[in-house]
Design a protein that fits this description.
The structure holds 2 protein chains of 2 kinds. Chain A has 9 helices and 24 strands. Chain B contains 2 helices and 6 strands, in the order ααββββββ. Chain B starts with a helix and ends with a strand. The chains are: A alpha+beta, B alpha+beta. At the A-B interface, helix 2 and strand 2 of A face strand 3 and strand 5 of B. Strand 2 of chain A pairs antiparallel with strand 5 of chain B.
């Protein structure tokens, strides 16, 4: 057929036609290539038809030929839009303002997000961003070019190894990748490393300072292991001693192991009771059937209704009874000793910080009715060095004095 | 002479099984219910008002009767009529 959209775009007229020879007018105009459509005719000499605006002037001579008269009833389409616009000015103004405000609002930065900062303060980055013109409420056009902003951040933020700036709609995302800086070692005070407890030196590793003891040497608590004073009496330097001294320390521990072991385990069978709580009164609702086992552990869970911070004296209680496995295990002496050793080892290792067991020995064990007493000896290799700050400014003299005292 | 050429045309049309509207300049009429009528190969409007449309054909006339008839579109050889169509009548000369 024909395309109404195209006709609307070109513009057309709705004509009222008066005249007796409308049929001839139609024939002539179609023959002349004039598009007419929606032709109505009422009675003998009155009709209506649509015609393209561009064809209207070509219709004129035909009208004369056929003795017809036309009257433009309505103008439709794009070329006549201007007239309509005048009538609907306020509406169009609204549309225009809407579009404009939409454009403006969508070009404003509404949010500045900072991602990935861990150590650097958010405010610090925001301040920097503001300096370069990235802040809430500015127009996107006024933002600096992204590369420039990134260079600026990389220069100003020393803790960052890379800074990315990204504009996502009305949001500016500043992505910070922080440098991983190795933790600075604390400056150490001048110090000695001394023995924390009586031990036999197992091995010694000196990083800084002067070694004072040898492997297999027995040291007492407080003996200097690595001295912070390097050099001889005339020419010395005080340094923070550093190193690792492992010593063999002896421990004795006593353990008692019950021969009757009763590890709690459940069979998986359970019985549930359900109560309604009114105040402190419990009304049993569910669970009247007989409990199918005798040895059990009961768990109960009370829930009271709450309204804001007030507790309402209404609630429910759930009781779960689980059947326990009833077999008591009686340990043999060997088993008990084995278990005791394990417990003793754990006990010893709890007492030392960084150590391992070198030797262990059962010194003594005694069975007493249903318990076994075990006494054990352990040789543990552990770090025995503790630091001792050097206070005195002339340590050699003091050392000498001490020697005299002893 | 004209009669003779028409006879040849018809013979060819029959022999080749061609549609007659192509060769014989006969109207092709498509009707959608009683609301729309599409006529190809007409030769002009003779008479038109809201109750009647009379079209000229190569041989004879086509009379369309109904109510609220409207010529929706018209081209030199085609016409689309809408309205409530009662009758389509073929009138031989």
């Amino acid at each position: 057929m024909y395309n109404r959209g195209q006709e609307w775009f070109k513009g057309y007229l709705i004509l009222e036609v008066t005249g007796k020879q409308l049929e001839r007018l139609i024939n002539l105009s179609t023959a002349a290539g004039i598009t007419v459509w929606n032709i109505h005719r009422f009675g003998n000499d009155y009709g209506k038809m649509n015609i393209l605006l561009e064809d209207f002037f070509r219709l004129r001579p035909l009208l004369k030929k056929t003795d017809c008269r036309v009257h433009i009833k309505e103008r439709v389409g794009f070329p006549f839009l201007g007239q309509k616009i005048k009538r609907r000015f306020a509406f169009l103004l609204g549309v225009f303002l809407f579009v404009i405000s939409m454009l403006i609002l969508s070009n404003i930065v509404w949010q500045v997000d900072i991602v990935g900062n861990d150590k650097v303060e958010k405010d610090e980055i925001l301040e920097l961003a503001e300096e370069i013109g990235i802040k809430k409420g500015v127009l996107k056009y006024t933002l600096p070019p992204i590369e420039q902003a990134q260079r600026f951040f990389s220069r100003e933020l020393e803790q960052a190894s890379w800074v990315g700036v990204e504009i996502r709609g009305t949001r500016v995302v500043i992505r910070v990748v922080e440098k991983v800086v190795p933790e600075k070692e604390k400056p150490l005070n001048p110090r000695h490393l001394v023995a924390a407890k009586r031990a036999v030196i197992h091995n010694i590793f000196v990083e800084r300072g002067q070694q004072k003891v040898q492997v297999n040497q027995v040291v007492n608590k407080g003996d200097i292991l690595i001295s912070g004073i390097v050099g001889n009496e005339n020419n010395y330097r005080i340094v923070p001693a550093k190193g690792k001294v492992m010593g063999e320390v002896w421990y004795e521990t006593e353990i008692r192991v019950p021969l009757k072991q009763n590890p709690v385990s459940y069979t998986g069978k359970k019985h549930e009771n359900f109560y309604l709580l009114i105040g402190s009164y419990a009304l049993k609702i569910k669970g009247y059937d007989e409990i199918p086992f005798t040895d059990y552990k009961t768990n109960e869970e009370k829930t009271y209704l709450k309204w804001r911070d007030y507790r309402i004296p209404l609630g429910w209680k759930k009781e779960v009874m689980r059947e326990k496995r009833g077999d008591f295990r009686k340990l043999t002496l060997e088993e008990a000793l084995e278990l005791g050793k394990k417990m003793a080892r754990q006990d010893v290792l709890r007492r030392v910080e960084d150590g391992r067991i070198k030797e262990e020995k059962v010194l003594h064990h005694q069975v007493d009715s249903d318990k076994v007493y075990i006494k054990m000896h352990f040789a543990v290799i552990e770090d025995i060095a503790v630091e001792q700050t050097i206070i005195d400014q002339s340590p050699f003299e003091e050392e000498n004095n001490n020697k005299h005292d002893q | 002479m004209k009669n003779w050429s028409r006879q040849i045309k018809r013979a060819i049309t029959d022999a080749l099984d061609l549609p007659q509207d192509v060769t014989m300049e006969m109207p092709r009429i498509t009707m959608i219910g009683h609301v729309q009528l599409y006529i190809e190969n007409h030769r002009g409007v003779i008479q038109f008002h809201d109750r009647e449309l009379r079209l000229l054909l190569t041989n004879g006339q086509l009379l369309v009767q109904g109510e609220n008839l409207v010529i929706q579109t018209i081209w030199p050889e085609e016409v689309l009529v809408a309205g409530k169509i009662h009758t389509v009548k073929y009138i031989d000369d």
